[in-house]
Structure formats: C-alpha cells, structure tokens
Design a protein that fits this description.
By secondary structure, the protein is α/β, with parallel strands linked by helices. The protein contains 14 helices and 8 strands. An 8-stranded mixed β-sheet has the order 3-2-1-4-5-6-7-8, with helices on both faces.
C-alpha cells in the first residue's frame, strides 16, 4: 500500500522502515536535508518537498505526520492545499485531542478525512511493533487497516486474555483499535501517557527507598534542625539495586516492560551518574489531569507524578525558600547546609 510519511525522527523513520519491510511503499519527507540523507541510506524512497511527496502518491492519497504537536498546524497550512477530496491525513504524534476536533471539522469541509492516531512503542517499536489508538471517520480507518496491521505488534505479542472470544471482531488483540470519532485516539493516548507518568513515578520512588535503606550505616545527625533516625539498626542494608530490578523481572507482580528498561539502565550504570534527574513532561500528563478535573474523575496518583516532574526541574525551589523563610521568621531556624 502506498503512503506518504512526514517527519523522519526516531519514530517516524523506524515506522517507515517497518512498513517497507512488511511490503508497503512509504514515500518519506523531512524538512531537514541531513535527516533526508540519513534515511535515504536505509533504502527508503525520499523526496525533497511536500509538492514532490504528493506527486509521488496515487489518489486517493494517505499521508501520515510524525512531527511535534506544536508544529502540526504550521505544516497543515502548506500541506492541506495540496490534498484532494478523498485523501486521508493522519496525525500520529501527541496532539491534544481538542485540536483534532477542530482540524477534523476544517478538513471534513474540504472532503479530506482526518485520523488521530495515538502511537506508543518508542524507539523499540520498529522491532516490537506499535500500539495504535485511532480516532476519526471509520471509513478512513477501514481503508488503512493494512497499514495499521503492519505497524502493530500482532496477536502473538501477548497471550489472549481469558474470557475474550477467540473470534472477536475487535482488532485490539492485534495491537491497534478504532477508538471512536475524531479525537478519541489521542484522548486514549493522552490517558495512556498519564498512566505512564504514574507507573514511572512509582518505580522511581520505590528504588529511591531501596537506595536509602543504608541510612542507619551513615553517621548520626545531631542537629536540632533535622529529625534524627530513631532506629538506625533497622536501616543497614546496602542493596544491589541492579540485581533487585533483575529479580523483579522474573515472576513478580510488578514486572513490566518499563521495569525491563529500568533494569537495563541500572545494569549499565548502577548509580545513574550520567543523569541529572531533570525530568521533562511533554504535555499529556497535564492534559490528562485537565480531563480528570473536567469530568470530576479523581486522579491523585497521576497528579503527584506530574508535580514530581515539576519539582525535578527546580520549579519548587521558591516554595522551599518560602518554607525556610517562615521557619526562620517564627522560630529563628537557620537552614542546614546540604549534605
């Protein structure tokens, strides 16, 4: 099947290579010449302009965008006038689902189908396959099923859940799913990423507790400004965190792919000395919490996970200074130097 792909970053290029290996015919474009040169060496058919991309595709065309959410509208200004009635435009990035509602309405008026496809799989997706959450016109979804099926992990990626009918018409077992009308795909992906924040935070906090299990072996603090450890004998464990992570991968109820990746990172660098601990957020966690507020759906775990990321970037520093200032004002408590 012919398909155009725009955005040859890590995921976009990997998806194009996977499609080509599965017998499809991607034609790819990236705004940066050096990126185009790089993916051309992979044997992909590369064009040097949007005009040439559209010209290379037989009608009705399908064009898949894998670019940052903030760049989509600017691209559409140049791309949409080149499309025709019956064409399909896919946003596989992490756009806010409300932007999909607007874009879908605008494109429908021009006779262009718009699909929002939440895409999960990261840099490992080329080999493992991608989990695809699709929103938009069902007719357009049906037309692109061969593309989704090639990108998805397939039924063999996980054993079937007991109780699901073997002949179920749902494609969820294959790793892709039509979630509903415009915006539904990115809405599901948004919450997926919010959950991801929470899971990652739980692992991070747990391993941090394990790392500090040797606190009782450290010199006792005698400062009046810090509560001493009352039972140092209870915390005398220097735990091999890399081994614990590896252990938990086997038979544990907390085993997961994220734990696999954590174990890999700890095996290479047990102290994670190459990292600063500054954790970014790309928007989906914030959007998930906004949806939680709008729908009165309590999400304290996801909220705490997002706020922890803010703190990792020093956004809590002034609040901490306010705390120190108040303690100094009401009690003459002076800050202790950082250990």
């Amino acid at each position: 099947m012919n398909i155009g792909m725009i955005g040859m970053g890590r995921m976009g290029a990997a998806m194009a290579r996977r499609l080509q290996r599965c017998g499809h015919a991607p034609v790819v474009y990236d705004a940066f010449p050096e990126t185009r040169d790089k993916v051309a060496k992979d044997g992909l058919r590369v064009v040097d302009s949007l005009e040439n991309l559209i010209a290379a595709l037989p009608a009705p065309r399908s064009v898949w965008m894998m670019i940052p959410a903030g760049a989509v509208d600017d691209l559409l200004k140049d791309l949409v006038p080149r499309l025709a009635r019956g064409d399909i435009l896919i946003d596989g990035g992490n756009s806010h689902y409300t932007a999909d509602l607007r874009r879908s309405q605008e494109l429908t008026a021009r006779g262009i189908h718009y699909l929002d496809v939440g895409t999960s799989g990261g840099v490992f997706g080329e080999k493992r396959g991608y989990c695809l959450m699709v929103g938009g016109p069902q007719e357009a979804f049906t037309r692109l099923v061969p593309i989704f099926r090639a990108l998805a992990p397939g039924r063999d990626a996980a054993p079937p859940t007991p109780g699901r009918e073997a002949n179920s018409s749902s494609t969820a077992d294959e790793g892709f799913l039509y979630c509903g009308p415009s915006g539904a795909g990115h809405f599901v992906k948004m919450v997926h990423n919010g959950i991801e924040y929470g899971i990652m935070a739980a692992y991070a906090e747990g391993f941090n507790i394990l790392r500090h299990a040797d606190r009782g072996l450290q010199p006792a603090q005698t400062s009046a400004e810090e509560t001493p450890l009352e039972t140092p004998g209870n915390y005398r464990y220097r735990l091999p965190l890399a081994d614990v992570a590896e252990l938990w991968r086997r038979g544990s109820v907390v085993s997961s792919w994220l734990l696999d990746l954590t174990a890999d990172a700890l095996a290479r660098d047990p102290d994670l000395a190459h990292l600063s601990g500054r954790v970014s957020d790309s928007g989906e966690g914030r959007w998930t919490l906004q949806a939680a507020i709008d729908t009165a759906s309590p999400a304290p775990t996801l909220a705490a996970a997002l706020f922890a990321r803010f703190s990792s970037r020093g956004e809590n520093l002034f609040a901490d200074k306010i705390l120190s200032a108040m303690r100094e004002e009401f009690g003459g408590h002076h800050e202790e130097s950082t250990r």
